[in-house]
Amino acid sequence: MEAHSVATEPRRADEIDTSFLDGVVGYWLRRASHVIATDYSARVKETAGLRSVQVSILAVVGANPGISQTQLGRSLGVQRANMVPLLASLIEDGLLRREPSDEDKRVLELYPTSAGEVKLHVAKALIDEHENALLAALTAQERRTVIQLLAKIADAGTE
Amino acid sequence: MEAHSVATEPRRADEIDTSFLDGVVGYWLRRASHVIATDYSARVKETAGLRSVQVSILAVVGANPGISQTQLGRSLGVQRANMVPLLASLIEDGLLRREPSDEDKRVLELYPTSAGEVKLHVAKALIDEHENALLAALTAQERRTVIQLLAKIADAGTE
DNA sequence: TATTGTTATACTCTATAACTATA
DNA sequence: TATAGTTATAGAGTATAACAATA
Q: Which residues, in sequence order, are bridge partners of residue B100?
């Protein structure tokens, strides 16, 4: 039995019934993440010439000078292999530098350059601007709440 | 002035300072979305042989028989061009069928087949299972809250 | 044997532009 | 002119497997 006699005319976009998906967390996660990532990527590329993950890299290296590539990737949820081109362009642009570890000759320690710290400062202002624009509908308390809940969800993948 | 004298030894992964990113909604959105999407995609591919967005398509067409491709794409946040291969495989698998509209000869109306309704039923059970597994750390109230907040964020992209 | 950084490569998902047929 | 569906293609972003150097 196929239900094709129900619709007798085209529907308007705002009449679409999505009631089932409305209760699915993963569905809204995909929608919201896509909206935020699209806007943020465009802004950070235009203003700072960076990919969004590269801003995270600058921030984490800035707060943890001497961190290794593997540690960095683990803390950001990025695989070792994918760190290579991300770091290569940051180093080529003079925003990060590498130094061999004294204790473990396999490890390359990462440090921000002064240019990298300036760039990170610019990026931080950019993030504030971006979040204030796209999260205008959320109060400060709601933003804290959503971060807390998203962190719980993200933790499910690192167990 | 480069801050490389601060770190004198490698850090353990759980000692990494990510305090700046911790307050950024977009950062946690990326992390959480990645965890959920990875697990869900693998399950739905293995069990139902579908991509995650295709499950959403089945659900929306099931609730809105006769919907057009453009309406469907708009309601799911998927562009017209990207709907084509998604729908092609669903039709090839006999889960959906198309019928020319009587009123507008440009429009193709979409209807679920009986096989599509069975598949949707399977997918719904899969979604419940997936969400219960990965959102175990969240109470029912917290899930409702996160959906409400994510919907507000997603709305920022459709204004 | 295990791990760090690396290379090469493939796959998924999304974006853009242009075409056709209808309106 | 505008819109629905389509085609072709490009670009992010991520995943997998294998390698050399070192532990």
A: B108
Look at residue A5 and give its three-state secondary structure: coil
B158 or A136: whose pLDDT is higher? A136
A49 sits in the region (left: phi over 0; alpha: psi -120 to 50; else beta) called left
Residue range B27-39, pLDDT digits in tens: 999 999 999 999 9
Classify residue B87 by burial, with Cβ atoms within 10 Å: 0-12, 13-18, 19+: buried
For chains A and B, count residue pairs whose Cβ atoms are closer than 8 Å. 271
**For A28-86, what is each residue's pLDDT tens digit?**
999 999 999 999 999 999 999 999 999 999 999 999 999 999 999 999 999 999 999 99
Note whether A131 and B25 are within 8 A (CB).
yes
CA proximity to A99, closest of A118, A84, A86, A112: A112
Minimal Cβ distance to B153: which of A32, A72, A109: A32
Please report residues of B whose CB lies closer than 8 A to that of A29: 29, 32-33, 36-37, 150
At B107, give phi and psi (nearest 5°): -90, 140
Q: Which of B9, B113, B60, B4 is nearest to A1 (CA)?
A: B113
For B51-76, what is the mean pLDDT? 96
pLDDT at A159: 59
For chain A, percent of residues with pLDDT exceeding 90: 87
Q: Is the pLDDT of residue B9 over 70?
A: no
What is the sign of the dihedral through the CA atoms of A14, A20, A24 and A27?
A: negative
- A21: nearest Cα among B62, B83, B115: B62
Tell me which residues of chain A, numbers 111 to 140, contact chain B at a CB-CB cutoff of 8 Å: 111-114, 117, 124, 127, 130-131, 134-138
Residue B17, chain A, CB below 8 Å: the answer is yes
